[in-house]
Design a protein that fits this description.
Length: 166
């Protein structure tokens, strides 16, 4: 079966928001810097992310029990639990909310006349479940496992990263 090329900019059917991406980047950076504190400004610089966005994300991750936050001039964030206990799928659910790929996924707003008779929505639900199953099998420890490579890509050196938060 041949698949036509998608129109420019339309090649991704399922796409996570930048908010979720940034949340995962914060957790990943906290994991590679553990047990040291990570400052929001540090994450903003390393990933070229707006500090104000990160502040909202860090607040939500702290409220959800993923991060410990310490205020003040020597403050920062660190993982509130072991990186291998933080499931990426759970973080995605927190930051994305329901993954309603199509209108009929949301019973409250669905106006589709094909509800209950459409095989497409069934398959899209299966695809979403498969996507989330992969993320449910992934931990923050796994996305931070290549610590040395990540530090280099972020422009940090292992020694500098460890020393900058002491």
């Amino acid at each position: 079966m041949s698949h036509p090329i998608a129109p420019p900019g339309k090649d991704q059917i399922l796409r996570l928001t930048s908010y979720t991406n940034y949340a995962l980047r914060v957790l990943q950076m906290a994991a590679i810097r553990a047990p040291h504190l990570v400052r929001i400004d540090e994450v903003a610089r390393a990933h070229r992310i707006n500090r104000a966005h990160l502040t909202k994300i860090v607040h939500q991750l702290g409220q959800a029990g993923y991060l410990d936050t310490l205020r003040g001039p020597r403050g920062g964030v660190r993982l509130a639990r072991a990186a291998d206990q933080i499931i990426v799928g759970d973080v995605v659910r927190l930051t994305e909310g329901p993954l309603d790929l199509v209108e009929c996924f949301n019973a409250e707003t669905n106006a589709c006349r094909l509800r209950g008779a459409c095989h497409l929505s069934t398959k899209l639900r299966e695809a979403t479940a498969a996507f989330m199953a992969v993320l449910d099998d992934l931990t923050v420890a796994q996305i931070a496992a290549n610590r040395a490579d990540l530090l280099v890509r972020l422009g940090l050196v292992a020694d500098d990263a460890d020393a900058s938060t002491l």
